[in-house]
């Protein structure tokens, strides 16, 4: 999917946060890289440095007693994907949830106990390089990098 080079109309660079209990994932670094790669691939953005360097996953490990449902179970995984407004259409939303759930389960989690939350930063609320960017500014920056080629 990501092999296509196209001019971005929305410049997505998601931040992915994963919350799970300690020991859930034997290879945290691989999980983080796999999640970031999956979202960038689904978004179908060009593989320019702006997107590669700013699409990232953060894995937060927590003590087992810091997560609980009503019954006391603590084996959940919460994945939150933050994008700029409008970055994921419905097809991409479905694909991101399915693929990230698959990756988490393969890495050691449980697909039935994995929650994927899609969140959008408001227009002008995407801070990068010390500036709160609008979508238009992000698109312009991506197009400028593509033009350097």
TrEMBL record:
<protein>
    <recommendedName>
        <fullName>4-oxalocrotonate tautomerase</fullName>
    </recommendedName>
</protein>
<dbReference type="InterPro" id="IPR014347">
    <property type="entry name" value="Tautomerase/MIF_sf"/>
</dbReference>
């Amino acid at each position: 999917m990501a092999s296509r080079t196209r001019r971005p109309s929305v410049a997505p660079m998601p931040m992915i946060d994963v919350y799970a209990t300690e020991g859930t994932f034997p290879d945290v670094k691989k999980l983080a890289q796999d999640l970031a790669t999956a979202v960038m691939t689904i978004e179908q953005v060009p593989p320019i440095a702006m997107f590669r360097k700013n699409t990232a996953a953060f894995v937060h490990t927590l003590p087992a007693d810091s997560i609980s449902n009503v019954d006391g179970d603590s084996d959940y995984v919460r994945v939150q994907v933050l994008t700029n407004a409008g970055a994921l259409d419905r097809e991409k939303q479905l694909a991101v949830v399915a693929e990230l759930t698959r990756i988490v389960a393969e890495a050691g989690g449980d697909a039935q106990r994995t929650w994927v939350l899609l969140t959008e930063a408001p227009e002008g609320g995407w801070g990068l390089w010390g500036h709160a960017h609008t979508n238009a500014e992000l698109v312009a920056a991506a197009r400028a990098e593509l033009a350097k080629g």
